[in-house]
Predict the structure.
Amino acid sequence: MASSSFAALLRRGSLTHLEWLELCSSRLDADGVVLGLADFPRTDGEYAAQVKKVAVDLGIVPVALDVPGLLDPDRPDEERSVAVALATGIGAALIRVTAGPPGTLPPETFARMVATTKTFVSAAKAANVTLTLAPAPVTLLPGLAEVQNFSKYVDSAWLRYDLPATSPEHAQLGGRDRVLVERFGLDEDPQLLASVHRRGWLVVEGDGGDDPFGRVGAVLGALRNLGQRPQMPSVVPG
């Protein structure tokens, strides 16, 4: 599950980051969590080590660090360096990213984003961290076709896909297309997953509202009743 579903509680101080981790384990019996960069109270090495230690003690996997828009070439390189260091510090194997806005000249933005991402991927590879790229509206890569085209230009096994679990676009994927993260919204019907062949970690996310533990718990319970765990592999391919 994603910390973004609990953002309201975290940001108004009703719940600390570490308390959220503990409750994900004890109350929701989660296998793993996706931690949004925006939900961290601090990003220094000492706090990252603390998050990793708590996760180890709880037996919960820090699957990914979530940083939307991180491939935007207009964002400082320092932000990407911080993300890699933080992912490494908390023990996350993945960083979830999206593109930035198209800009006034989309072809020029595309070329700069390819160059930025190649440098970013090299740094992530050196830290043994894989980037997962999701299509996102109002960005330079709004759909799977655009993500696939962009991935060909970057040409790295350290850049993989992050897609909606029930998306019909899965039919466009080939056997060599690696989907490491599949998103499932809190507002979606769990029955939709009954006949879906999944390839990666299933991440439950969405606006948790005033009772995120109740909403997320209900979805997890429904998924378990289908005989499916909310996160799938214990080893994420790279």
